[in-house]
Write a structure and sequence with these properties.
With 118 residues, the protein is mainly α. It has helices at residues 7-25, 27-35, 48-76, 83-99, 105-116. The two termini are 14 Å apart.
């Protein structure tokens, strides 16, 4: 069975892992945001940790959204995920690895390559 057929599921698990790690790592910042009532609780100049937590979790949601779209292509439409999705994921991951070498961006590189393969 081709790995490409499972690319949406693989990215879904990556999104779940990313979000769970974000909740664990940023638990205190999330708690502080909640204690301040969520609305306007993040001033990037005053709360760099809160801003990092917000964007970390938002990226997880965006990954999950992309994974859902990929699953729709594969399962509902019966087509492969377009190669350009793999190209964009690879570019995003490589940029991420350059700026944050100790990160989960490495997990997406093989997934991107699988999507790009003919």
């Amino acid at each position: 069975m081709k790995m490409k057929k499972h690319s949406g599921v693989m990215l879904t698990w990556t999104a779940v892992l990313h979000t769970v790690v974000g909740i664990i790592v940023y638990w205190q910042q999330i708690t502080n945001i909640a204690n301040d009532g969520f609305i306007n609780a993040i001033d990037p100049q005053l709360h760099a940790g809160r801003a990092a937590a917000f964007w970390f979790l938002m990226f997880g949601i965006l990954l999950f959204m992309l994974a859902s779209l990929m699953n729709w292509f594969i399962q509902i439409k019966g087509t492969e995920v377009p190669q350009f999705v793999g190209v964009h994921l690879l570019a995003l991951s490589l940029i991420g690895v350059l700026f944050l070498p100790v990160s989960g961006f490495w997990l997406v590189i093989p997934q991107a390559i699988i999507i790009m393969r003919k």
